[in-house]
Amino acid sequence: MSDITSPLIEVRQLSKHFGQQIILHELSFELFQGEFMAIEGPSGCGKSTLLSVLGLLDLEWQGHYQLSQLHVKNLHKRQLAAARNRHIGWIFQNFNLIGELTVLDNVMLPMRYGSFGSARFQQEKAKTVLESVGLADKAASYPHALSGGQQQRVAIARALVTSPGILFADEPTGNLDSASAAMVFQLLQQLNREGMTIVMVTHDGQLASQCSVRLKMQDGQILQTTR
Ligand SMILES: Nc1ncnc2c1ncn2[C@@H]1O[C@H](COP(=O)(O)OP(=O)(O)OP(=O)(O)O)[C@@H](O)[C@H]1O
Ligand SMILES: [Mg+2]
Prior knowledge:
By secondary structure, this protein is of the alpha/beta class. It has a single domain, classed as Rossmann fold. Helix content is 32%, strand content 27%. It is built from seven helices and ten strands. β1 and β2 form a beta hairpin. The protein is globular and about 50 Å long. The site of magnesium ion (MG) has 2 residues, from α1.
């Protein structure tokens, strides 16, 4: 996505308001390719809002944001959609799988939009990614038949199937028991070792302490960034 010297994410003086309320206040930081960032802070401090801005879901903000050397403010609608589809993977606390679709069809979903090869190729790709998260045998199952940890691993497979350059995760272990949480986090660590850049919101200081960058927020501001 970008060369080794320039940041993958560069944020300068980024602010966001809802009416009179300041949600994000003059944030500045950067993230380099291959890093694993934890965003921490009390409930309501703006973590999910920041993630939505970084992941190009929220476009209502002021300031400067470069993603992979693209000036986000200058992108047209179609360029934004293309950047989202091609470069960004998402996982959420509640997995957001589609209950009416099999595991394999859930994983194939992101490839419906954009040019990701033939139907045959897409199915093979989805199977390979499912295998890489250890769930090849669940391809024909429906989400409700899986444990929370397994559902999150399906969601990770779905996020990875388009080979994004960066993965955004909003409290990915927040709804899991500790054993499943550990397994999901280990999978994220493995992906990061293989080169995936990850930005993860978490309330778990134990997990955050294992990330290469910690960004601590409070009241819409950055308290501290440590590497
Ligand atoms: N659509 C919205 N309209 C108005 N205010 C909002 C909206 N979404 C979020 N907020 C406010 O923005 C602030 C930050 O919310 P955000 O969801 O980013 O917090 P958070 O740090 O992710 O919290 P949590 O840890 O509980 O998930 C909160 O004060 C919230 O009430
Ligand atoms: Mg949140």
